[in-house]
Amino acid sequence: MDVYDAITKRKTVYSFLDKEVSEDIILKLIDSAVRSPTAGGIREYEFIIVTNADVKSEISKVSLTPHIDSAPLIVIIICDKSKMDAVFDEEDSETFCVENAALAIENLLLMASSYGLGSAWIATLQQEEIKKLLAIPEKYKVRGIIPIGYIKEDGEVKTGGPKVDLSRIVHIEKFNSNAD
Ligand SMILES: Cc1cc2nc3c(=O)[nH]c(=O)nc-3n(C[C@H](O)[C@H](O)[C@H](O)COP(=O)(O)O)c2cc1C
User: Fold this and answer.
1) pLDDT tens-digit readout, 3-23
2) CATH number for the 3-169 domain, one of 3.50.50.60, 3.40.50.300, 3.40.109.10, 3.20.20.70?
3) By the 8 A CB rule, do 119 and 146 touch?
4) Phi, psi values for residue 41, rounded to 5°
5) What is the value of pTM for the model shown?
6) Residues with beta carbon inside 6 Å of ligand 1?
């Protein structure tokens, strides 16, 4: 599947088939995530891979998004901002942590899509609860909970992405009023 196909097929899903994601694919997803650009070449994020049913069930509760434990795999991305703080001022450090994680997550979601896998990026979560649950050290911040799996077609999905009218948001040569 080419990149554009992976992009257009990606959609947020919450219901998954009871079908394992192979270790090879999991490794490929993570490998793709860490190939995204990073501010200052600093890769301050790490991943926790969860496949245990009991742990997934607990994660589902603290993610504030019910039922994601149907995913065979949940990836948690965590960030150690102190690595960024060592190089950038406070404002840039905070921004770059968010941006680095976002790019890594998008790579991961698109790679998942290329394998026919569905996913969701869940950022609304109970920070302290999930850290406690997964024994994540204090200095880390959880940036996302990402359930991944083969899509249950009659299950819950999001929009699949809005159909954007490009003529409303693209300006040629200078800002113009074609958006009104
Ligand atoms: C930064 C960010 C945070 C998100 N947080 C959540 C979340 O907490 N819970 C959730 O169900 N979906 C979350 N999403 C997924 C969006 O709701 C979803 O991408 C959007 O509705 C568009 O649907 P699509 O991904 O199918 O195009 C998040 C997406 C982004 C980019």
Assistant:
1) 999 999 999 999 999 999 999
2) 3.40.109.10
3) yes
4) 70, 15
5) 0.92
6) 11-12, 65, 120-124, 158-161
CA of 40 to the centre of ligand 1 (A): 27
Nearest protein Cα to ligand 1, atom 1 = 123
Atom 10 of ligand 1: nearest residue by CA position: 122
Nearest CA owner, ligand 1 atom 13: 122
- Tell me the two tokens of residue 64: 């504030």
Question: Percent of the chain, pLDDT > 90?
Answer: 78
Q: Where are the domains of the chain?
A: 3-169
Q: Which atom of ligand 1 is nearest to the CA of 161?
A: 27
Residue 155 scores a pLDDT above 90:
no
Residue 63 CA, closest ligand 1 atom number: 8
